[in-house]
What we know:
The protein has no helices and 7 strands. The chain is mainly beta. The protein has a single domain (10-85), classed as F0F1 ATP synthase delta/epsilon subunit, N-terminal (ATP Synthase, domain 1).
Amino acid sequence: MKHQKDDTQLRVIARAPFQVYYEGQARIVTASNRIGRFDILPGHADFFSVIIGGDVAIQTDTETITFPTTGGVVGVRGDEVMLFVNM
């Protein structure tokens, strides 16, 4: 049985008050909350969390964008991910 490539991607917006870290399509978003590190992939359940300081990673088809945060919030609705950090 041949497996088909899943072309579903996340639509990601990652911002701070005066900076846009990333806006576009991604395969995986990784961040941390007080429970631990977590990944958001296409098809993830709707989700809202406070994120703690540390690195956020956004993996696209061609690169991984990583940036440090002092904390923030992340919201997932459908395949849209919104990160607001360093507030």
